[in-house]
Every structure is written in structure tokens, then in C-alpha cells.
């Protein structure tokens, strides 16, 4: 098993290097196309200009805005993912509870959560609580739905084995439901992180509050296109950085995946 995991690690590193090589190749082609006049350099500034825009942002208040956006997102994730995972495992383990709550989930989940943001502003004001609550509601549903799906896919035979050996519901949860649901839980959290980041940036656009969204909005208003692209790059880096520990946990705790 150890040799297989080491081999898988080498294959994963090789694939990541391949992806990085493709990204560098695309950036080089973009640079050549812009410099050669094949694309509009103003609307599609070459990566070298985007890098300069990124340096300009870094010299100003980029770090502060990144911390604000990430802190806002992490607060919403904490308030939404934890109850979402716990409630999802409960709903997936208890068929009756799942039948009761499923109509409510089907009614609320399709709503774009950003349209509820004005309601949260009315309830909590224009401060941080309205933003964090909107993020929490957004990330609750993918966490809950994936956790419930993970718990439901566990064969009932495994729980019967625990009962036959004298284990109760807590033992079944600890040794069967939680480990068996872990891949789906982590994938649900990964989706939740991406959706939460999207909603966070959208809210920063809406109320023009400090954060990465405000940097992009200001760049758009002043037509500093290279800084607009630089802000997009920063958002991508945040997304990749937040997804890395989730993927690491998935490899460590669900090695059979």
C-alpha cells in the first residue's frame, strides 16, 4: 500500500508539473499574441503588464484587502460548513429526517443566495454580519447535501455489524458513517469554498466594501485593465490555496479514493 501511495504521489506531482507547463505555454502565447498585434493589447494586456499591475497593487493595500476577503470567507465557512456537515450526516443516517427536510432543501437550495443579501442587510445592517451570514447560507447547502449523500451511500450491513458487536449509534457514527462519508464531505467542502469565494467577491462588488472585489471594481471604474486582471489572478491564487489543504486531507484520510 505504501509503495502504491508513493507511486501515486509521484504521478500527482508529474501531472501538476504538466499543468504548470501548459499554463506557462499559454501565458507565452498570450504575450506573443498581444505584442504581435493579433489581439487588442488594451482589452487583453499581456501577462508582463498584468504582472506590473500586480506589483502596483502589492505596493498599495493588496495584502490588507486579501486578509479582509479571506477572513470574511473563513468566517462564513465556519458558520455554514460545520452545521451543514453535521446536519447532512444526521439526515443521511436517519431516513425519516431526510424525508422531512428534503422538500425544504429542494425549495431553498436553488435560490441564488446573493439575491438574499439585501434581506440580510435589512436584518443585520450593512456591516460584516450581513456578509458573513450570506456566505454561511451559501456554503451550508453543498456541505449538507454532499454529507447526506455520503452517509446514505454506506451499506446498512456495515451498521448492522457494529450493532452485532454491541456498538451504539455513537460507535456507528465514529467507525462507519464518518469515515465512509469523508470523501463526499471533503468534496462538498471544496464546492462550498469555491461558491463562498464567488459570493464574497460578488458582495464586495455590490456594497463596494474593502476586499479583493473592491480592488477589481475600482480598476474597472478607472479603466486600469491590467490591475483588473491582476485582481482576478489574486482571486485564483486564493481559490487554489484554500483548495490545497482539502485535497491533502482527502489523500491522507481517504486513501482508497
- The percentage of residues in β strands lies in under 5%
Overall geometry: globular
CATH homologous superfamily (4th level) name of the largest domain: MetI-like
Q: And the CATH topology of the largest domain?
A: MetI-like fold
Which class best fits the helix and strand makeup? mainly alpha
Gap from first CA to last CA: 13 Å
Overall pLDDT metric:
83
Indicate how many domains the architecture comprises.
2
Total of DSSP H or I helical runs spanning 4+ residues: 10
CATH architecture term of the largest domain: Orthogonal Bundle
What does the main sheet amount to? none
Runs in which pLDDT lies below 50 for 5 or more consecutive residues are none
What's the alpha carbon Rg, rounded to whole Å?
A: 22 Å
| CATH class term of the largest domain | Mainly Alpha
**How many beta strands in the DSSP annotation?**
0
Helix content: over 70%
Q: In terms of topology, how is this protein built?
A:
Blueprint: H1 2-35, H2 47-59, H3 62-93, H4 95-108, H5 117-124, H6 128-152, H7 156-164, H8 169-207, H9 212-221, H10 225-253
Q: Can you offer a commentary on this structure?
A:
With 257 residues, the chain is mainly α. The protein folds into 2 domains: 1-31; 45-253, MetI-like (MetI-like fold). Helix content is 83%, strand content 0%. It contains 10 helices and no strands. It has helices spanning 2-35, 47-59, 62-93, 95-108, 117-124, 128-152, 156-164, 169-207, 212-221, 225-253. α2 (47-59) packs across α10, α7 crosses α8 and α8 packs parallel to α9. The chain is globular, with a radius of gyration of 22 Å. The mean pLDDT is 83.
